[in-house]
């Protein structure tokens, strides 16, 4: 393993602050503005809403620290795909890549495109019949934009990062000090009357996790840090703690500004809160900033998602490998992989709502997350001599917390949303015949 690690080692030039900004940039996306509607719908109370944001942050910090050990021990390009492959073999790794290609990235594109369309309709006061056309147009437009090259996509990401931080800061800073007639009770922590406490907790946790989406990638920083043994844990803890604080504060402001009963299911809660805080004109300006942020999030999924089937194609691990592994002549972009991803995303725009799509992608990815947490225990036992530039402090407490949190999310979803869970698992398992058809065709051609 060490020889392989040395051969594929990444350049180690990241210090603490670049790593910290990368952690925050990876995680903060469109969910910070729009998941409040589904979180409150699941919890039914202000107290449980704030609590699930805190709990989700606590679980995510421990999950990030756990995956960071894997990343430091297996510091090769490919991230969680390579961790799963190293621990469990090629078939589970392929299923992960398959799930990312047909569920995770397309669902992210479609869900956020729906949100973008909803906000455009709200901002411009146009009919809801425009939602699907606007969402589809955005998905197609960003696919075409990314054909211009990775540099163009990266520029959009930079602009969107600034755009999303400005409305977040304004809403929190001004919103906290703006007087409100709404009273908020944070203790005792109770669920609404619509469901029991544990069911509400599970639904709230699942909803919050889309806002923390991106945490699985923070571990990949280990291979690029100067001192991962000192700075990795610090950047993850500080970064995810800061993100949790931001999510708690902005959720508090939303609940403070809007009567609680107006938030559940209301995808315009962020813009309506902004209008109450800043007035009609100021609120619309903040809403434009939110739109740019969502635009950047869709671009992020579009840009990174196409690389997964492309890698499968170049490694000859999927049917039609040559098709998926093809790059554009001048800009060297995986156009065919991106096209298929966009087609799937458009199909998902027709089939589901924002919350349904995000819940499905979170559920499926947490199954693989739990596999990674278990993988830390497996490697500790099977390969104790493996070089680990970063080792989890207070082991085995963080991976146990991460494992317990992940298991709760999965089990709760199976009971609360069995149809969604069955669809997610079913689509993932469809990857098995795809894998073996290609595998036997390859063997036959040898």
UniProtKB/TrEMBL annotation:
GO terms for molecular function: L-amino acid transmembrane transporter activity. Keywords: Membrane, Transmembrane, Transmembrane helix. One of its GO terms (cellular component) is membrane. Its main location: membrane. InterPro entries: AA/rel_permease1, AminoAcid_Transporter. Gene3D superfamilies: Amino acid/polyamine transporter I (1.20.1740.10). It is a multi-pass membrane protein. It is found in: Membrane. The keyword Membrane applies. It holds the Pfam family AA_permease_2. This is Amino acid permease family protein. The chain crosses the membrane at residues 14-36, 48-81, 93-118, 130-149, 156-177, 197-215, 236-255, 275-298, 333-354, 360-380, 392-415, 421-440.
């Amino acid at each position: 393993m060490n020889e392989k690690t040395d051969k594929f080692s990444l350049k180690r030039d990241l210090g603490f602050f670049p790593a910290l900004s990368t952690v925050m940039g990876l995680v903060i996306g469109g969910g910070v503005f729009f998941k409040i509607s589904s979180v409150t719908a699941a919890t039914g109370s202000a107290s449980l809403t704030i609590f699930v944001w805190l709990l989700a942050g606590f679980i995510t910090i421990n999950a990030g620290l756990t995956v960071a050990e894997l990343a430091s021990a297996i510091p090769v390009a490919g991230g969680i795909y390579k961790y799963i492959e190293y621990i469990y073999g090629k078939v589970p790794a392929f299923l992960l890549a398959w799930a990312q290609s047909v569920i995770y990235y397309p669902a992210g594109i479609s869900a956020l495109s729906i949100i973008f369309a909803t906000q455009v309709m709200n901002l411009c006061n146009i009919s809801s019949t425009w939602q699907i056309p606007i969402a589809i147009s955005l998905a197609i437009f960003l696919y075409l934009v990314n054909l211009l090259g990775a540099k163009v996509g990266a520029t959009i990401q930079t602009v969107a990062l600034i755009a999303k931080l400005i409305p977040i800061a304004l809403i929190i800073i001004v919103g906290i000090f703006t007087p409100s007639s709404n009273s908020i009770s944070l203790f005792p922590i109770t669920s609404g009357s619509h469901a029991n406490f544990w069911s509400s907790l599970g639904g709230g946790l699942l909803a919050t996790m889309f806002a923390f989406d991106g945490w699985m990638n923070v571990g990949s920083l280990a291979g690029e840090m100067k001192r991962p043994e000192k700075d990795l844990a610090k950047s993850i803890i500080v970064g995810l703690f800061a993100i949790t604080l931001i999510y708690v504060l902005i959720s508090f402001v939303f609940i403070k500004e809007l009567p609680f009963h107006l938030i559940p299911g209301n995808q315009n809660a962020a813009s309506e809160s902004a209008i109450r805080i800043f007035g009609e004109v100021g609120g619309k300006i903040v809403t434009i900033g939110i739109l740019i942020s969502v635009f950047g999030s869709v671009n992020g999924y579009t840009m990174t998602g196409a690389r997964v089937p492309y890698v499968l194609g170049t490694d000859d691990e999927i049917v039609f490998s040559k098709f998926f592994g093809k790059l554009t002549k001048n800009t060297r972009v995986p156009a065919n992989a991106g096209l298929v991803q966009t087609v799937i995303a458009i199909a998902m725009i027709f089939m589901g709502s924002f919350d349904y799509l995000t819940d499905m992608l979170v559920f499926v990815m947490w199954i693989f997350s739990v596999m990674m947490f278990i993988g830390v225990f497996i490697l500790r036992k099977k390969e104790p001599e493996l070089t680990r530039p970063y080792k989890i402090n207070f082991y085995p407490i963080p991976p146990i917390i991460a494992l317990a949190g992940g298991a709760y999310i999965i089990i709760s979803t199976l009971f609360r949303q069995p149809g969604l869970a069955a669809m997610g698992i079913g689509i993932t398992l469809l990857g098995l015949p795809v894998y073996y058809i290609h595998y036997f065709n390859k063997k036959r051609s040898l």
